[in-house]
């Protein structure tokens, strides 16, 4: 392999990794949900806790405020946001992989 080919491959790999990082940053804010007087992140940890929680429970939001919530309602809302956001992110990543 010549030097020009190596440089071109490194630039392409860097651009691809930069695009992946951009997508992660773009979608990370879409996981944040305001509901029931708090700000919540729709992530696997929160979803797992809510799935097993009692109907009324106290949960600490993103600003470290303990808030009494209806766990099942919050679970349904966060799960919907999580699935929608992950689907969009996955579709964009597939498109990015095609252009590679």
Write the SSE topology.
Layout: H1 3-28, E1 32-35, E2 38-41, H2 44-52, E3 56-60, E4 66-70, H3 71-99
Antiparallel strand pairs: 1-2, 3-4
Helix pairs in contact: 1-3, 2-3
Folded structure, characterized:
With 100 residues, this protein is an alpha+beta fold. The protein has one domain. The protein contains three helices and four strands. The strands form two sheets. It has a two-stranded antiparallel ribbon. Strands 3-4 form a two-stranded antiparallel ribbon. Strand 3 and strand 4 form a beta hairpin. The chain is elongated, with a radius of gyration of 19 Å.
In a few lines, what is going on in this structure?
By secondary structure, the chain is of the alpha+beta class. The chain has 3 helices and 4 strands.
Q: Rough shape?
A: elongated
Indicate the mean pLDDT: 87
The first-to-last residue Cα distance is 20 Å
Strand content: 15-25%
The residue fraction in helices comes out at 55-70%
| Total count of domains | 1
Arrangement of strands in the largest sheet: 1-2
Number of helices: 3
């Amino acid at each position: 392999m010549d030097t020009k080919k190596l440089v071109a491959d490194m630039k392409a790999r860097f651009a691809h990794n930069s695009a992946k990082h951009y997508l992660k940053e773009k979608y990370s804010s879409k996981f944040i949900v305001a509901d029931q007087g708090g700000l919540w992140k729709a992530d696997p940890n929160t979803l797992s806790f809510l799935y097993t929680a009692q109907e009324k429970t106290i949960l600490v939001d993103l600003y470290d405020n303990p808030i009494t919530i209806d766990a099942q309602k919050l679970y349904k809302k966060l799960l919907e946001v999580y699935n929608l956001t992950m689907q969009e992110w996955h579709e964009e990543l597939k498109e990015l992989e095609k252009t590679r």
